[in-house]
Amino acid sequence: MKKILIVGATSTIANACARLWAGEGSEFFLVARGEQKLQQTCADLRARGASAAVPYIMDANDDIALHRAMLERCLETLHTVDICLIAYGTLPDQSACERDVELAMAEFANNGSTVIALLTLVANQLVAQRNGTLAVISSVAGDRGRPSNYVYGSAKAAVSTFCEGLRARLFKAGAHVITIKPGFIDTPMTQGLALPAFLVAQPEVVARRIVAGIERKVTVLYVPAFWALIMCLIRALPQSLFKRLNL
């Protein structure tokens, strides 16, 4: 029976993953900022076979000092953490961020620095345990700074680079870090965006790949898999050409 901590538990991707783990009888400590939706998520997971699903209300972006109390409560409940999935974030309006420095920094914190703060805290717990897997939702947007979303992309790039170093550190302690890089997923975050339908994946498909990747202890996981090739091509573009493209 897995003991699983999920921060951002009501997000579409996290919820789809949790439903798969619930079928295995896993025990959950679920963190999100919206109480009603979180309670509904807990009830749904119990109905799907979870041995326990304990809710905890916290906005991970509000104050990083709150993270420690959350983790302490999690350990009081689960006693150990087999899997921690960090799955919260926002998709900012790039144009608005270009006009408003405070908004740009807030969005960078939402997607970057607060995630790094939480990763650091959970990583220390896994080192103490000398086991466990830390999985974080980054993004393909972090692979290269595109003009259409470079505030979001730079935050995700920071998370991905941080995870690379953290992975090497935790490996020596018997724990694992997996960086998950989704492309376009059919979630509320992408609603209203003009996206090619063939590039938009369904959350259930993505969740199956994530859960399997965590089980196999993959290091970097592109979801769907074809994004690895797409981003390889984008990274290969020379700067003299890349800066002329509207990506």
At CATH level 2, the architecture is 3-Layer(aba) Sandwich
Largest sheet: 7 strands, parallel
Helix content: 40-55%
- Largest sheet strand order: 3-2-1-4-5-6-7
* Strand residue percentage: 5-15%
Element string (H = helix, E = strand): EHEHEHEHHEHEHEHH
| Secondary structural class | alpha/beta
Rg over CA atoms, rounded to whole Å, is: 18 Å
What does this structure look like?
The structure is a single chain. This protein has helices at 12-22, 35-47, 66-78, 94-99, 101-129, 150-171, 203-216, 227-236, 239-242, and strands spanning 3-7, 27-32, 52-57, 83-86, 133-137, 176-182, 220-223. With 247 residues, it is α/β, with parallel strands linked by helices. It has a single domain, classed as Rossmann fold (3-Layer(aba) Sandwich). β2 (27-32), α2 and β3 (52-57) form a beta-alpha-beta unit. The radius of gyration is 18 Å and the shape is globular. The termini are far apart.
